[in-house]
Amino acid sequence: MRWTLKPKPDSKKTVNLATELGVDKAIAELLLQRGIEDFDAAKTFFRPSWSDLHDPFLMKDMDKAVVRIKDAIKNNEQILVFGDYDVDGTSSVALMASYLETKSTQISTYIPDRYEEGYGVSYKGIDFASDNDFTLIIALDCGVKAIDKVAYAKKKGIDFIICDHHRPGKTLPSAVAILDPKRSDCTYPFKELCGCGVGFKLIQALASKDGESVESLVGYLDLVATAIGADIVPIVGENRTLAYFGLQIINSKPRPGFKALINHMKKEVLTITDVVFNIAPRINAAGRMKHGNYAVALMKETNFKNAEAAAAEIELFNTNRREADKRITQEALLQIEQLNETNNATSVVYQEDWHKGVIGIVASRLIETYYRPTLVFTKSGDFLAASARSVKGFDVYNALENCSHLIEQFGGHMYAAGLTIKEENYPAFKAAFEAEVSATLPNHLQTPEIKIDAEINFDSITPKFYRILKQFAPFGPQNMSPVFMTSGVQDTGYGKCVGEDQTHLRVTLAQKDSQKITGIGFGLGTDLPIIKSKTPFKVVYSIDENEWNGHVSLQLKLKGIKS
User: Fold this and answer.
1) Are strands 517-521 and 504-511 parallel, antiparallel or unpaired?
2) Contact at 8 Å (CB) between 205 and 242?
3) The dihedral sign for the CA sequence 59, 64, 67, 72
4) Domain span at residue 421?
C-alpha cells in the first residue's frame, strides 16, 4: 500500500483563509485542497442553496425535449419511461414517471430484463411500445449509443428523448432530443451528472414552464441523491447541491419505499455512505436477482404498508445476491490460481453458469485480492457478457476501445464498463486485453494508494474540529472524507484482533501525552504485531463517530499502519 501525502497549500493562503473563516489551519488546508480559497467559495461549499443549480435550458436539446413532452401530454399520447436496471436507471425511471403522472394518466414504465434484453434500449422494449400504441419513449441512463434501435423505433412511428450521461460515440441517434452533458456540442456548465441527475434537470425544465419553482421538486431528490452515491459520480458542483438536499429528504421525509428499507437501521442521521451501502445494494438487488421493475415499484409506492411488503421481497433478493457473489468470488479466485494467472496484468475469468446480476460485484471483489483491471464473464444467450472494473487512475473504457475489434457491444465509464463478445472470441479477447493493459498500465498504478490530506496530532481531534469536518459532507469522488496521518503513536495495551474470523483490529491509541482515542481497522488484523511491538508507529485514518448504547464518541477508522 502506497501512502501519498498531498502537498501542503501555500502557507500565506492557509493563514488568510483560516483567519477569514475563524477555523483551524488544518481545516483551511483541507478547504484549499478542494479549491476553496475565500469566504464566498466556502459559503457555497458549506451551505449549498437552490440558486447553485444551473438553468436546465443550458443543456443542449432541452428546449426540444420540453416541447415534445408538452405536446405529448396535450395530445394525450402514451409515454413510455424506459431505463436501465441498476440504481441510477431505476431511480431515474421512478423520478420521471412519478413526475409525469402528475401531468398525465398516459404514463407507463419499462425496465429491460437483464438476461433477455441486456443493457440499455432494446428491440423488445421498442416492440412492446409499438404493440401498445406508445408514441414517445423517454430513455434514462441509457440510449446515447442506441443508433440502430432509435432508427428502428422511428420506423414504427415512435419518437425518442434520451437522457444519458455516458460518453457518446462519434454518431448520435436520430432522437427528438439527446440530453447528455458529455456531448461534445453541449455547453452545459456541469458535466458529471448521473442519469437520474439528467432526468431531474428535465423535470426542472418542465416544471419551470408550468411556473413551478425548483424547490417544489425537493421530494424527488432522495432518488437523485441515491443515484449520485450509487453511480460514484463526483460529489462536487451541482451533484453536491443535489445530494445535500436529497439527504435532507432521506433524513426528514423519505418516500415510503426508502422508509421501509431504512427502518431496520439504528442511525439517527443517514450519510451518503449509508445510502451507498444500505439503500443502493437493495435497489440494485432487484435488477440483479429478479427484475428492475420491483425496484421501480418500491420507489414509486405511496402506501407505506405496500412499501413494507415490497421492501421485504427486495430484502430476500439482496440476501440471495450476497450468497451468490460470495460463492462466485471464491470460484473466480480458484480459477485464477488454477490457470497460473496470479501474476498477470489483468484478471479475466469466465464460467457459463455465473449469475449475470452479480458479476460486477465479483469483479470489484477480485480487485481486493488482485489489484488490477478485472473482467468477469458469464454466458448470456448466444454471447458472453462481462462486467469490467478498473483500478484507480486507469481508464478501462479506453482499454476496451482498443480491443473493440473483438467486442460486439460495450459501454461505460473510466472505472466500470459492460461488454458482450462472441464465445469463440473469448481466448483472443482475453489475450488482447492482457496485452493492452500490460502495455498501458503504469507501474505506480499497480499498487493501491492511500492519499493523505494532512498530518495532524491527536490533540487536534476535538469535538469542534469534527463538527466542522462533518460539514464537508456529503462525501464522494473529488470530495472524499478527509484522511489524516499521525506519527509517534503507541498502543495503550488494549489492541486486539476482532471479528468472526479475527481479521479486524480494535485499538486504543495515544500520542505522547495526548488523550486516548479508540480506533477500528477493518482487514488490518495482520498489523497486530506492529501494534504490540511497544515502539511508536504511524497510522492513517479518517475520523467518525461511534454510537454505542446511546453514547456517541469520536473514533478513528484506520486505513493503514506502518512501523
Assistant:
1) antiparallel
2) no
3) negative
4) 342-446
